[in-house]
Amino acid sequence: MSQSFEFFFDLASPWTCLAFHNIQPLAQKAGATIIWRPFLVGGVHNQVNEAYVESRANNQGSPKWRQLVQSLHDWAAQSDVPMNFPSKFFPLRSVHAMRFCCALEDRQSDLVKFAKAGFDAHYTHQLNLDDPDVLVHVANGAGLDGETLRLRSQEGGVKEQLRRNTEEAVARGAFGSPSIFVPFGSGERLYFGNDQLPLVEWALRQEHQGGPA
């Protein structure tokens, strides 16, 4: 039986863009299935990580900020992922984009198509994913029906699904995007960010070999 693990994500995070691209060949190599779970990282920060939001606003231009941006671009170059960051839309308000994603959550392959197109639109072409017209264009470019997605994204059930996903992630320990939950022994491991993907691979290997010692 194929292993599966969950990838909670928000298009607003450049590190999530990297992890989105890098985790797919990792999962394929491990024979594992990724369950893509859209959530709202701003909602996560508001509940458990307000200090991060404040520090991001206050520390842009600081030595730490310059190092983070350099590291991001180095990871992008190492991963062969285009990364045109930051844009004038940073930090991105992503609620509209993530409602589009939630409207596709039960169609996982289409969700991946839209997410890939969304990451490319924002981190390569610096388009504003807070604009529903841009999101319709992105969806159409991915071979999806953008206008139908716009309407679906405005439904109460889709908005509630995004809220539930966010609350679930927080309840399970998430504090940012991406939050990756891997079955481990009788429970699960939470891994955060692109740089912890080697640990995701290790955890999957442990389960494949019959569980941790």
Rg from alpha-carbon coordinates: 17 Å
Helix content: 55-70%
Which shape, going by the Cα principal axes?
Answer: globular
Low-confidence stretches: none
| CATH H-level superfamily title | Glutaredoxin
| Percentage of β-strand residues | 5-15%
How many angstroms separate the termini? 21 Å
Q: How many individual helices?
A: 10
Biggest sheet: strands side by side, in what order?
2-1-3-4
The name CATH uses for the topology is Glutaredoxin
Number of strands: 4
CATH top level class name: Alpha Beta
CATH architecture level-2 label: 3-Layer(aba) Sandwich
Domain count: the total is: 1
The biggest beta sheet reads:
4 strands, mixed
> What is the H-and-E element order?
EHEHHHHHHHHEEH
Structural class: alpha+beta
Mean pLDDT level: 93
How would you describe what is shown here?
This protein has 213 residues and is an alpha+beta fold. The protein has one domain: Glutaredoxin (3-Layer(aba) Sandwich). The protein is built from ten helices and four strands. The chain has a four-stranded mixed sheet. α2 (41-48) crosses α9, α5 crosses α8 and α5 (95-103) crosses α9. It is globular, with a radius of gyration of 17 Å. The protein starts with a strand and ends in a 5-residue tail after the last helix. The model has no long low-confidence stretch (mean pLDDT 93).
